[in-house]
Amino acid sequence: MRRTGPHETAGKATRLVLTAGCLLAVDASFAGATDTRRPPIAIVGDAIPAPLTDTPGDPARGRAIVADRTRGLCLLCHAGPIPEERFQGDLGPDLSGAGSRHTAGQLRLRLVDGRALNPDTIMPSYHRVDPSPRVGAAWRGKPVLEAQEIEDVVAYLATLRDDTREGPAR
Amino acid sequence: MRRLAAAALGAFASLAAVADEIPQAERRSGFDAMSAETRAMQVDDTANPGLLWVQDGADLWTRAPASGRPACAGCHGEAATLRGVAARYPAFDEASGAAIDLQGRINHCRREHQGDPPYGHESRELLALSAYLGFQSRGLPIAPPRDPRLDPARAQGAALFRERIGQLGLSCAACHDDNHGRRLGAATIPQGHPTGYPLYRLEWQGLGSVQRRLRNCMTGMRAEPFAYGSAEFVALERYLMDRAAPLPIETPAVRP
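^ inputs. structure came back:
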């Protein structure tokens, strides 16, 4: 995919610094950062190893979020092993096998803020309050998905292991 | 026009973004990606529902306004004399010192020359008259005016096109420059050229302006759409027309 210019995200897009192996405290724009009962979301290398909530993710709820074009939006851009949903998109890779290619922690960072990995990606950062202007009134100040929804989607993606494509071992 | 566009872009965009502009020879209308049935509907004047609005526009063109001042035709004569106008708008408006689009120009004449209140955005009358005038230019290549006074609008439009907005942090360019031809759910992402407006959209079951289309895209981005008639929309229209030239005008087009 061709990349859009770096000027789009320059400056305020993300203050995360990715340094392999370092624990980093995270930007206040992360949705979870306002919850003082929980430690800030910590990125370690290319992953967020710790779950965002105490309740383990539910793969069935996660599947429903991924399948829902107005909630997860995933199938607008991705194909996936959800045969009842026709007209899946092809802007991103097929989600089949995502759980074989990535650890749960890697999937979590990809969802929470994929732009920390690839600032130019078209994939939205699902659990940070996007710093872009002109957010519609209904969405202002809210992340695309709440912490528990992220955990549900991570749990679902981790079950997608039937792919033969190569990826990092877990 | 390329010189102008390049100058306007230079002020705002990085080299990478300019390189992402679709070269003229590769510009394609959304028409090309439509199903055979929808294409047939557009090109057959007896099947294209947009022609009903064109007919309404022809009636309005000759109808005297309530004020008793002349009809459009009273001053302009045959509408065919305005062939080419839709292909070069938005243009610079001396009176306001800013860019004005075709619908703004129609309402300007209504106010200043007919002494009647302007038509509402997306009203049957405004859509009909702009479809009628667009129809006069059908088949003509989009021909952006070489007017340096439009440079600020061009630059603003280009910047808006590339700006990430809304909850999803998307830009127009992310879809229409970088991912055209790919599938977003059921829709094939077009290059996003405003060649056919106002047009009949099957999803709307009616005619709509380019601003209505842009508001649809912005809502999809979970962004607050610009207001109808705003300077931002006129600037985007100017940039989109530069970016689409020299594709031919298709008004009234049909789209899914």
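Chain B touches chain A through 31 residues (CB under 8 Å). The domain at 50-136 of chain B is CATH 1.10.760.10 (Cytochrome Bc1 Complex; Chain D, domain 2).
thumbs up if we can close this ticket
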